[in-house]
């Protein structure tokens, strides 16, 4: 049985945009779409809180209306709905475990950069075992047929990230722009002799290009129909990736989860891309 593309729907502009994007992607990949609405009733002593049965019915009505709209827009779509009596983060994480990918809405960038995807969205992205795609409510129209992916480390470090990017590009008939960003290691900054040896060996950029080509080799073989654009650049990873993704169809980054006293963090590069990219951003967990 095919894994579905799962999307969280809560009636907001962001979630409806995410549902539309997920439906289109499901049709491209010939996969089913599963819409999830989560609600959690807590008894509090205020008159505006609805009884649990009323909240549950409202969630079901929202899902059925969203499904009806999507099926009218995409006649080839196979869809299902699931109202869940659970907190949103827990419900989405459970659904993501059995999904091809999870799609969530994002407000995009603004002055409150630290809270754009919200605590729920950040928790989901940081803990999901499957790729999570964040879709802005008003994303820019793509100008280039490219899926941009950030590659770092060796072949094993970026296998899942590259695979997701190539699968997405193949479904869209797009090219993959593989970006590897590097900076001068501290040892070369403080040791002129080390820098001289590196230059004699062909320079650091040559080494970075070779590492990127080695990581791309299995994907080139598996997806021969997907054009590949190679970009190796020195600089800040977040800034370079955001510039490369401008006008692209999607930006794909890996996730290196880091635990902190105040919760799980997703890494500075993924954080920057999620909050400032104008296109959908896929965050893929490393194995």
From TrEMBL:
Transmembrane segments: none
Entry's family note: Belongs to the universal stress protein A family.
Lineage: Bacteria, Bacillati, Actinomycetota, Actinomycetes, Kitasatosporales
Pfam families in the cross-refs: Usp (PF00582)
Name of the protein in question: Universal stress protein
Cited InterPro entries: Rossmann-like_a/b/a_fold, Universal_stress_UspA, UspA
Domain UspA: 3-136, 149-285
């Amino acid at each position: 049985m095919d894994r579905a593309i799962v999307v969280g729907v809560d009636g907001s502009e962001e979630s409806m945009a995410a549902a539309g994007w997920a439906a289109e992607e499901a049709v491209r990949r010939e996969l089913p779409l599963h819409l999830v609405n989560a609600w959690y009733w807590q008894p509090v002593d205020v008159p505006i809180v609805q009884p649990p049965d009323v909240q549950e019915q409202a969630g079901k009505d929202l899902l059925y209306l969203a499904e009806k709209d999507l099926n009218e827009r995409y006649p080839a779509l196979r869809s299902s709905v699931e109202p869940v009596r659970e907190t949103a983060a827990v419900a989405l994480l459970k659904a993501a475990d059995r999904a091809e990918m999870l799609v969530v809405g994002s407000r995009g960038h603004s002055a409150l950069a630290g809270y754009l995807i919200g605590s729920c969205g950040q928790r989901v992205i940081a803990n999901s075992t499957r790729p999570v795609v964040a879709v802005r409510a008003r994303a820019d129209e793509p100008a280039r047929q490219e899926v941009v992916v950030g590659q770092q480390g060796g072949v094993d470090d970026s296998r899942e990230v590259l695979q997701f990017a190539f699968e997405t590009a193949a479904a869209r008939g797009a090219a993959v722009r593989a970006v590897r960003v590097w900076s001068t290691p501290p040892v070369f900054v403080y040791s002129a002799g080390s820098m001289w040896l590196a230059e004699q060996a062909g320079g650091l950029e040559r080494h970075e290009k070779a590492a990127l080509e080695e990581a791309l080799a299995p994907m080139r073989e598996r997806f021969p129909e997907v054009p590949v654009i190679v970009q190796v650049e020195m600089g800040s990873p977040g800034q370079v990736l955001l510039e490369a993704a401008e006008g692209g169809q999607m930006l794909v980054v890996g996730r290196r989860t880091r635990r902190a006293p105040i919760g799980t963090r997703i890494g500075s590069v993924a954080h920057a891309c999620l909050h400032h990219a104008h296109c959908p951003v896929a965050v893929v967990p490393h194995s």
